[in-house]
């Protein structure tokens, strides 16, 4: 193959990750593994590509010679950098100590840019740097904020994430390890600065493969640029288009194609749908402020066997009414793409409230396929939250339960009936009652005898689920309802997508000055669905217009 830059365009559901894995497998047959790099927007995404490579071609584990990671991680090692300024520890320090200077909110929730004020002084400067805008074109307040930030970083010997890219672009000519082939995925999410560095390093490689989809470039608020991906152009023989979607049926693809065709600057892609069919339906009576009809739709869609449903909006606050209504009805939802977000993941079966309730219900045959008496670990989960003013425990028994629960040899040992009786002080007056409750899937005894502070929102939701379904089984399985902003679920898929058309004031202003960015955002929302898209009605005048 001749040297240079090649581009792989992967429209929604066309198997881009699988394709790249096959190409890596081919590359290791002609190139030393240590001379190949795999880079993506996130470490998890890069590792996902690597995990798809057949084991008999090359083992891409942590000790592999093929190097896998984010662009920032390669820059960090190239510069032998120390601590990073824009991390929770140092942002907290900045806001605490630097009185009178611009405060900075670490963008931990990148999924809701349209609900944020994007004109904060420091965040402005991060954006301008990522777009490679010369400082002489900055406004005075932006230069002042950046000078203050730079002085503070120097005083504490810190670099921020943008420094890593800038410094490598200015001072490091060759990518660490001098690779010969570079695979760069999700390139539509790279900033202008990041792509400039990729191409600088790529000039010293035999090949670089840039993979992505400019139509799905939705992180412009962080400096990502579809234009930077597409320009400068390359010859047609250096472009490869994946030609079949394994997700989109014909009706959804047809609508999505018409939608995205309104974007001015884009690479036109022709590809086949997964199959004929699918549906796009408009429900003008559904809106984010009136969640009851949406919940009825959810129940219908999620009622089909194994159907997953996504509820999507442009901004986080538009999802709060639906989350509140779902919780009130004991309906579990989650966002598997933002697991650390407690607002979208109120229940985790492996810890917290759900784990305590599931442990209490271990004898329940409707919750568990193999019901039995508790082991020491499960006993500890629910005894720990009991109110000892209501339930008299034998002196010293809590300590014994805790020790046994932490002991690996004892934690999984099922307790005897005599050991259970010994938990309670004097005659085991309460044992028959709560054992019968647990065996029947009734958590009433646990609720009544729990310390009040443990009866928090997650616990109330877990108990409500059991009350309304008659068992804890729903707490054990992955929910089939996904809630999130469109940004938060990028890369995900579902059977049915329910989309709200509303925009924040920031988003509505953006629609006027940069409609392409908003069209791309909703294109990503439309193309998550394998079967059906439900287009909801607007709540305010600030919304996009469905076709």
How many beta strands in the DSSP annotation? 11
- Name given to the CATH homologous superfamily of the largest domain: P-loop containing nucleotide triphosphate hydrolases
Mean pLDDT over the full residue set: 89
* Main sheet: strand order: 3-2-4-5-1-6
* Largest sheet geometry: 6 strands, parallel
Provide the gyration radius in Å.
27 Å
Q: How many domains? A: 4
Globally, the shape reads globular
The percent range for strand residues is 5-15%
Please identify the top-level CATH class of the largest domain: Alpha Beta
CATH topology of the largest domain: Rossmann fold
Distance between the termini: 44 Å
| Residue windows where pLDDT falls under 50 for at least 5 positions | 59-63, 108-119
CATH second-level architecture of the largest domain: 3-Layer(aba) Sandwich
Portion of residues within helices: 25-40%
- Counting DSSP H or I runs of 4 or more residues, the number of helices is 23
Structural class by SSE content: alpha/beta
Fold and architecture overview:
By secondary structure, this protein is of the alpha/beta class. It has 4 domains: 4-79 and 167-242, Rossmann fold (3-Layer(aba) Sandwich), CATH 3.40.50; 88-158, no CATH class; 252-342 and 480-536, P-loop containing nucleotide triphosphate hydrolases (Rossmann fold); 352-476. It is built from 23 helices and 11 strands. Helix 2 links the parallel strand 2 and strand 3 (67-70). Helix 5 (121-130) crosses helix 6 (140-155) and helix 7 (161-171) packs parallel to helix 8 (192-202). The longest helix is centred in the first third of the chain and has 16 residues, at 140-155. The protein starts with a strand and ends in an 11-residue tail after the last strand. The model is unreliable at 59-63 and 108-119 (pLDDT under 50).
């Amino acid at each position: 193959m001749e040297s240079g830059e090649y581009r792989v365009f992967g429209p929604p559901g066309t198997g881009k990750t699988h394709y790249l894995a096959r190409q890596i497998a081919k590359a290791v047959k002609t190139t030393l593994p240590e001379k190949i790099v795999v880079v993506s927007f996130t470490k998890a995404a890069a590792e996902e590509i690597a995990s798809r490579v057949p084991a008999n071609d090359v083992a891409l584990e942590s000790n592999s010679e093929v190097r896998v990671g984010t662009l920032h991680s390669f820059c960090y090692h190239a510069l032998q950098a120390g601590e990073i300024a824009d991390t929770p520890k140092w942002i907290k320090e900045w806001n605490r100590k630097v009185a009178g200077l611009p405060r900075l909110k670490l963008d931990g929730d990148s999924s809701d840019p349209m609900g944020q004020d994007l004109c904060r002084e420091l965040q402005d400067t991060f954006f301008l740097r990522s777009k490679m805008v010369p400082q002489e074109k900055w406004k005075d307040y932006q230069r002042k904020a950046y000078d203050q930030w730079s002085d503070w970083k120097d005083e504490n010997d810190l670099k921020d994430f943008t420094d890593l890219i800038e410094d490598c672009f200015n001072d490091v000519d060759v990518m660490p390890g001098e690779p010969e082939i570079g695979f760069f995925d999700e390139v539509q999410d790279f900033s202008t600065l990041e792509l400039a560095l990729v191409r600088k390093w790529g000039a010293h490689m035999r090949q670089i493969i840039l993979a992505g989809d400019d139509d799905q470039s939705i992180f412009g608020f962080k400096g990502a640029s579809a234009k930077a991906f597409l320009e400068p152009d390359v010859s047609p023989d250096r472009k490869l288009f994946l030609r079949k979607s394994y997700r989109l049926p014909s009706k959804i693809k047809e609508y999505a194609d018409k939608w995205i065709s309104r974007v001015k600057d884009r690479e036109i892609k022709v590809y086949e749908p997964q199959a004929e069919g699918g549906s796009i339906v408009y429900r003008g009576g559904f809106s984010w402020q009136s969640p009851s009809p949406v919940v009825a739709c959810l129940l219908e869609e999620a009622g089909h066997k194994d159907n997953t449903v996504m509820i999507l909006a442009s901004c986080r606050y538009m999802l709060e009414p639906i989350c509140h209504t779902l919780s009130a009805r004991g309906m579990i939802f989650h966002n598997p793409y933002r697991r650390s977000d407690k607002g979208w993941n109120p229940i985790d079966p492996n810890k917290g409230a759900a784990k305590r309730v599931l442990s209490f219900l271990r004898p329940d045959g409707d919750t568990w396929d193999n019901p039995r008496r508790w082991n020491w670990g499960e006993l500890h989960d629910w005894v720990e939250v009991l109110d000892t003013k209501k339930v008299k425990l034998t002196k010293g028994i809590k300590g014994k339960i805790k020790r046994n629960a932490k002991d690996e040899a004892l934690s999984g040992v099922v307790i005897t009936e005599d050991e259970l009786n010994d938990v309670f002080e004097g005659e085991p007056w309460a044992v028959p009652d709560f054992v019968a409750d647990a065996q029947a899937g009734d958590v009433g005894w646990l609720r009544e005898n729990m310390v009040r502070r443990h009866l928090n929102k997650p616990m109330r939701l877990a108990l409500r689920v059991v009350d309304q379904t008659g068992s804890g089984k729903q707490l054990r399985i992955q929910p089939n309802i996904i809630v999130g902003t469109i940004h938060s679920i990028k890369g995900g898929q579902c059977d049915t997508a329910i989309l709200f058309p509303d925009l924040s004031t920031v988003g509505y202003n953006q629609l006027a000055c940069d409609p392409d960015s908003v069209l791309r955002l909703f294109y990503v929302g439309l193309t998550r669905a394998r079967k059906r898209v439900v287009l909801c009605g607007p709540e305010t005048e600030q919304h996009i217009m469905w076709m």
